[in-house]
Description:
By secondary structure, chain A is mainly alpha-helical. Chain A is built from five helices and two strands, in the order ββααααα. Helix content of chain A is 58%, strand content 4%. A two-stranded antiparallel ribbon of chain A has the order 1-2. The longest helix of chain A is centred in the last third of the chain and has 25 residues. The longest helix of chain B is centred in the last third of the chain and has 33 residues. Chain B is globular and about 70 Å long. The two termini of chain B are 23 Å apart. Chains A and B meet through β1, α1, α2, α4 and α5 of A and α6, α8, α11, α15 and α16 of B.
Amino acid sequence: MLKTYAGSWDAITWIIAFITIAIVVYIIRSFGRKDYRKGEAQKAFFSGEDVLSPEEMHVRASNIYWGFVEAMKGYYAWMRKIHNGIINDYIAWFVGVAAIMFIVFFIQEVIK
Amino acid sequence: MNIMLHMPALLIVLPLLAAFVTPLIDKLSRKARNAFVIAIVVIEEIMMLFFAFHIFSGNIAIYTMGSSEPTKLVTEAAVPIRIVLEVDAMSAFMGIISATVAMAAAIYSISFVEESKGKGKFYTLLLIMLAGMIGMEFTGDLFNMFVFLEILSISSCALIAYRNSDGNAVEGAFKYMVVSNIAALLVLFSIALLYSQYDLLNIAALSKVISYTELDKVALVLLVTSFAMKAGSVPMHYWVPDGYSPAPASITAMLVSATQASLYALFRVSFTLYGKVITASYIGVFLIILGLLSMFIGVTMALSQKDIKRLMAYHSVSQTGYMLLGVGIGLYLLNTSDFNTYGIKAMEGGIFHIINNAMYKGLLFLTAGAIFYRLKTRNLNEMGGLAHSMKYTTLFFIIGALAIAGIPPFNGFASKLLIYEAAYRVSPILSIVAMIVSILTLASFVKVFHSAFMGAKIYEVEEAPKSMLIGMAILAAVIIILSIFPGLVVDKIVAPAAHALANWQVYAGGV
């Protein structure tokens, strides 16, 4: 058992609980309808439209989370601008971080 | 001869000598070369485990290179001379990570680079990379740390450019070289600043006499920023996706460990070298800020990627943020009464996250490599339905993805839980950001899982070759062990490492 600051974590207990819940769910599921027909009843209904083939229905990576990226397009525009692939800028950021640290040290000395 | 006494040197020398023997064996036979490399990395792993558990039982190993009595210091005017290796629990902890990932990467490479040219050189550089990592983690000498940093950087750079017909690989290697050289030069400059004042290069000896002069502060700033850049911390992370994505997958897994060796150097400098004089908490605050930026920017950039390895590379940046946050909180609270309550727990979380990340991120890069091996593309838009034909790879991906997303009962959850709770005590904002990042991590890997593995069968491909599956299985097995026994791992391995880092006097007392 892992002792954390405020409590504890035991993976084995969690796994036992998970398996127990899974068994209960399986038992409840087994009480379901037995007359379910395979084949036609499994087909998705798209308001009478023809259903695309599985290959055509596969959502491509660029379309996933489109809404998230669109909602944050200002942030992503800025991110793309700074992730420009120019090595000079990479080093400029490093110099900038070092400069900020130097300034913090300097201010601390002045406050003392 | 007690072999345990010579372990610190043997663990560096073994891969280093083997690296130079490999091209000779390569001339004789391809199979003999493969067998030799595998034997070396397996022996290295076994030796490392024996040695590490000797160290975890409360020992510190000292080794003076070139001395007739290497376990004793050669001193002149009470100053230790010659290169001294000093291995405490933190060093041994890092050593286990490096050796394990190298073993999985080398076995994986047998099939992965089989069709490539220059395999003798590939394995030579891989073994040099391993020696560089272990050297950085085991050395007790600042200049020697710089030398191993250079050895690691040069071998990594050459391996990133291994597929030199790919322009991206050459460009990535060039950027890595520029960044590494600037970081290494500033590390060297910092070492010169310290040496000019104290006539010392030994970390333990320096930590006893360091007086926090203006030059010491300049050296501290340069060391922290240089190692933070090498560790891939935002906003000095830009080289990470450029370098990680075009490198062979097994090398990318090794690069994760290599960046963690730089993280180790950052922690060693902050906690041990400056342990006596760092009473102000702003270095800890600095690490916490870098951690937060790395977590958030890393994961949001990952979410919008379509190159599978570039996506995973941004996640590496994000995961480095967790480590910086956890250990940064420890440094922030060092020398306060809160350190012994939640400060040390945050450090344990950060350090536990180092081994967790090395294993699951290494595994995820290997699964990405298996996909590339079969499809010859890293573009997620061109993938789909791979779960039909690459069942084991899919399983390994699921293990790695659930672990990195911090889903119970996987190891990522255990280390993140330690960090969340301790971070909450410092500021609830820190925990909230860390949890949001974890959710976005899950979302990102759901995207990869859907794009690459789900859907109808599009490609007629076979499962990855056996050696690649074995490489992935090794890391998956370690993840499962870390997941099921987090308490044991933290008590026996992580807590000794955290205490070794927090108590600079113990490390200093070793010399």
